[in-house]
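Researcher: Can you fold this with (2R)-2,3-dihydroxypropanoic acid in place?
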Amino acid sequence: SAELWNSAAHVLEINWTGDHMVPSRKLYPHQWSWDAAFIAIGLAYVNPTRAWRDLRSLFEAQWPDGRVPHIVFDPATAEADYFPGPGFWDVPAYANRPARGSTGIVQPPMHAIAAWDVYRHASAHGANCAQEARTELEWFYPRLVAQQQYLTGRRNLGGGGLASIVHPWESGLDNSPAWDEAMANVPADLSLLTTYQRRDLNNADAAHRPTDLDYSRYVGLVLSYRAERYDDHDLLDRHAFAVECPSFNSILASAELALAQIAGELGLSAEAAAHRERAQRITAAIVKRLWNARTGTFHALDVKTGKLSPAHCVSGLMPLMLPDLPAAAVESIMAEAKSEKFGISELPAPSYDRTAPDFDTKRYWRGPLWINVNWLLRRGLLVHGFRDEAEDLRTAMVRLVHRNGHFEYFHPETGEGLGAPTFSWTAALSLDLLA
Ligand code: DGY
């Protein structure tokens, strides 16, 4: 509807800083990595130049080793307005590092998917936009390749061809029950929270956020990684948390497929074939390593212990994005998605199994429903030809945001908006769902 379109465009107007988009003005006053990708996908419909600027602003902070940081800081925002800020991360200096500073961890590599989407949509905006899109695509391609190489190379901590996350923040699904077992083995020192103070609770209800116990571990993991200047060599031995997430790795494989499209468009056919082959290899590794044959579902693998998490989380549905997923796995994901655990009806899928005893309707990634993962789920439904289910999910998302607003996340039973009220990716993806 025009009303939803206009309200979404308005959110993207008020969250634009002139250089990049913030996820929300108060709770997240810097630039976030995977947010930027989802944002660019929607922004392409209303302002392709800004979509490219936003992605570039993030990639200008790419490290020489290829990693794209999970937050790029805005020097105009006071250290006191966000924790953990640039002073806490204290990342090593590197050539061409922008003055803005960054964190030393990553987030799911959605950016090749975004660049390809923005390119296709911008090309429809007329000759000037098409010319700009071509120039941008050429600028991004080697940088996106370097990002993939970092993740499939240095982050292949388990040796099986998947990327490990070394901090829950890297998943983007911060306090997901998928890491409960792995996190139980991470030292928790609550006294760290007297030295380093949380700022998120100044702008959000504590019951809707990760707990202090979570935060003490989050801080401890950064201190551990920071101590060796975010070096990845022998990280598995030195660091308390290493997990292979099905959602992160499905995005990693999808990014290779997007890179294949981009390489093809740029006339690099040998590279395109190599990207497709890498996507197949990652897909095969996801099936081999993250599939529980007994339950027929995908789970996070704790690389330190070799154990799969027992939790059923929305991340386990994300391999549906992969076109080469074996038919049996597709069927199982569809059964799980339609079961009472995740059943999409009036409302989109929750972040966690509705039937779990610790399902928490308000706490971030432990129950509430999020638009970005549902958008990815819809993409997966379309990849495998489930057109009716995809359309039902699209309708459920549009209805939810239209009724409740562009919230960060939503109560999985009532649809009530939770977290930040004018959240950029909810607005941006609404534009894509309406287009
Ligand atoms: C936050 O600040 O809550 C973010 O999720 C960390 O990336």
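Model: Folded with (2R)-2,3-dihydroxypropanoic acid in place. Residues 70, 169, 174, 200 surround (2R)-2,3-dihydroxypropanoic acid (CB under 6 Å).
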